[in-house]
Specification:
The structure is a single chain. This protein is of the alpha/beta class. It has 2 domains: about 1-120, Rossmann fold (3-Layer(aba) Sandwich), CATH 3.40.50.720; about 130-255, Dihydrodipicolinate Reductase, domain 2 (2-Layer Sandwich). Helix content is about 35%, strand content about 25%. It has 11 helices and 14 strands. The chain has helices at about 10-25, 35-45, 55-60, 75-85, 100-115, 130-140, 165-170, 170-190, 290-295, 295-310, 315-330; strands at about 1-5, 25-35, 50-55, 65-70, 90-95, 120, 145-155, 195-200, 215-220, 225-230, 240-245, 250-255, 265, 280-285. A 6-stranded parallel beta sheet has the order 3-2-1-4-5-6, sandwiched between helices. Helix 5 (about 100-115) packs antiparallel against helix 11 (about 315-330) and helix 8 crosses helix 11. It is globular and about 55 Å long.
Length: about 325
């Protein structure tokens, strides 16, 4: 049985709690932290969580929890991780791991020095389609991987802190590029070193001090190229697609807009449609099981199976550090 201290009550905290409580037997959020009392109290009531707090230290050091689950804004990750490592707790942190590579390296060294379990929560690396495609690649179905492309685009984030680079660390690259970079890295092979980055980014629509669109190319030592394109200005919902090309085959994945469930309505569905859906009428593309389709179920299964077995999960803080380093290079380019 695992008892968790959840830090953060935003959209990602809701997805995490829904996935854990509905799909992970023996895993429960037992303490939830929010900076605002009303948010903490309501979240605890909504999800039947016995304890809530506005005191970060109290939540992390709760003697009845063994794992700290971090779903906070990016600028708070480092502080939370260092405190959790000092408390000797297992740590699961949402993406990106940190504001930049220097911070990511600091927290990686802290968890390694403390000897605590660490998992990097890149959910889109764990979607059922992605895991099956990755297995095919690892089994040699495509031969040597030559090129990957990952795209994430939608109308923009839910919370205002994303728009502020002093709290987020950047714009669309650090928000969504982290997913795309790690997806490409998994398909090419984590043992293959990235060598060079070229990236173009601009603020085209949003009145913000960060990029709302970007395209990047990462060259690996094998010669493989990994392409990502991200946008906070895409209209019509959320576009999640991946492609992999090898010497002997090709994979194409469409995760969100073309789910096989298309619905036209003049009156609306009468409730939630899907993440980043812009309308409740007209043509809609609902998702049958959202937390599963987005990878949360398989991600947490991997994390807790690895934790119980005393092994490393598929995604660790080292992977988060590599992704932060690549994103730093994107911004420098």
């Amino acid at each position: 049985m695992h008892q968790l201290s959840l830090l953060g009550t935003g959209l990602i905290g809701m997805f995490y709690t829904q996935s854990l409580h509905q799909y992970q037997p023996g895993v429960r959020v037992a303490h939830v932290y929010s900076r605002r009392k009303e948010r903490a109290e309501k979240f605890a009531a909504d999800w039947d969580i016995p304890r809530w707090s506005t005191d970060l230290d109290a939540a992390i050091n709760d003697p009845h929890t063994d794992t700290v689950l971090i779903g906070l804004p990016n600028h708070l990750h480092k502080t939370a991780i260092l405190k959790a490592a000092a408390a000797g707790k297992a740590i699961l942190c949402t993406k990106p791991l940190a504001m930049n590579a220097a911070e990511a390296l600091e927290v990686l060294e802290a968890v390694e020095a403390a000897g605590v379990f660490h998992g990097y929560l890149e959910d889109l690396c764990y979607t059922p389609k992605t895991l099956k495609a990755l297995q095919a690649v690892q089994n040699g179905a495509l031969g040597q991987v030559l090129w990957t492309r990952s795209r994430e685009a939608h109308p923009g984030p839910h919370s205002d802190w994303f728009w502020d680079p002093t709290r987020s660390g950047g714009g669309a690259i650090i928000d969504m590029g982290c997913h795309c970079i790690e997806i490409g890295r998994n398909f090419i092979g984590k043992q293959v070193q990235p060598l060079e980055v070229v990236c173009w980014a601009d603020t085209l629509v949003k009145p913000i001090d960060a990029e709302d669109n970007a395209v990047g190319l990462i060259r690996y030592e094998s010669g493989a190229l990994s392409q990502f394109d991200v946008s906070w200005t895409y209209r019509g919902g959320m576009d999640l697609r991946d492609e992999v090309a090898g010497e002997n085959g090709t994979i194409r994945l469409d995760h969100w807009l073309r789910t096989g469930f298309e619905l036209f309505t003049e009156t609306g569905m009468g409730g939630y449609v899907a993440e980043k859906a812009e309308s409740e009428t007209g043509w809609l593309f609902p998702v049958g099981d959202e937390v599963n389709a987005l990878g949360y179920v398989h991600m947490f299964r991997d994390m807790f199976e690895a934790m119980d077995a005393g092994t490393a999960p598929m995604e660790t803080f080292y992977d988060g550090y590599v992704v932060n380093a690549i994103m730093d290079a994107c911004y420098r380019s």
